[in-house]
Amino acid sequence: MKYTKKDFGSYKLHLINTDKFKTIKVRVSFHRVIKKEEITMRNILCDMFIQSSKKYKSKRDLTIKAQDLYAADIHTTNSRLGNYINTDFYLSVLNDKYTEEGNFASAIDFLSEIIFNPDVKDDAFNKEKLEIVKSAAKSALNSIKEDASNYSLIRMAEVFGKGEPISYRMTGYIEDLDKIDGSNLYQYYLDMINNDLVDIFVIGNIDEKSVADLIKKYFKFNVLKKRTVPFIVEEKKARSKKLIGRETIDNTQSKLAIACRVYGLSEYERNYPLTLFNVIFGGCSDSKLFKEVREENSLCYTIHSFPNKLDNVLIIRAGIDRANYKKTVSLIEKDLRDMCFGKFKQSDIDMAKEYLNTAFEEIEDSQGKIIDSYLMMELLGTDDIETKKEKIKKVTKNEIVKVAKKVTIDTIFYLEGVKDDRDWVKRIRC
To answer: What's the CATH fold of domain 2-218?
Structure first.
């Protein structure tokens, strides 16, 4: 695998040359500092791209064109990376070696059509299609509680990180939908195209010069502003007293979401000892939380932890019976104390290192995950996969314990499942 980066001033092109895949995958990433009031607008815009364009007047027309390109896949997503909101355009298409010469170039032309030539007339997006997208968004936002597990994380983040990027709902806000019309959406689109930071990734069995020339032909931006805000959110110390949030939901199962502040980590600690800490603590089926809380004490249906390194947060989530709330929290707190006192074995460390080594190998089997890895290298200055493998091998127990002592429970959010409708309607205590 060969990696090359080209800086064209207005955007950066990342070429990853490998003969491991029959497809070529392209990812065009637009990112800017996140603002809560822009999230809904950004989501609607993201959906509008795949409704139509100037040339392809309907979603059906776009689908037919993608099929003509040997079933090319094109889609868009929005996400948050720390302090930034990220809009991605994805293209996956068979290499010309398996189709016909010029198919990849046609696919790039198609992708650029979607990005640079939206369905706009008189400086406004198509009103009819916009209303369809807004209606679908409204339905999705009205049903957000139906996924209790995800909703518990949303509410935990709002209680835990009020005013911080982690608290923003990436689903958007229903009260902002009526503010969006074809004209202000188009102005926001122009702002994104002209002012967002842009990274373009291409991975596959490629001729680097030809691909670079093709991208330069179809992707033209104004000179962009330099990045002035880091992607990693400024770290904060945990509250002196735990914040307890509680809300009831009409569900047979309750959800527990716990946010831990991780404070005072070095870059090395954030990327390596913390990663190993998490695997041992709650990051896999051989972890302390999984074995002790779920298997040995039967207190939950599911439980796991994961670090949100861009927010300096570690999150624990579990699905539990209502009656097991106090016991579950108590045991989680005990397991965290045990990690701080080094009450885990060398075999746990060996297990975690093997688990991560397997995960690194799986990255190399996925074009999307490889791109994710290189994106983090670009945005955060993280190591490449091979370097990560070597550094993980060398992490010691003392380093893991040192990191464990920097993990402090800040907020416990309990989404309590209740059966009695009369009980849950007004019981919101946050």
So the answer is: Cytochrome Bc1 Complex; Chain A, domain 1 (3.30.830)
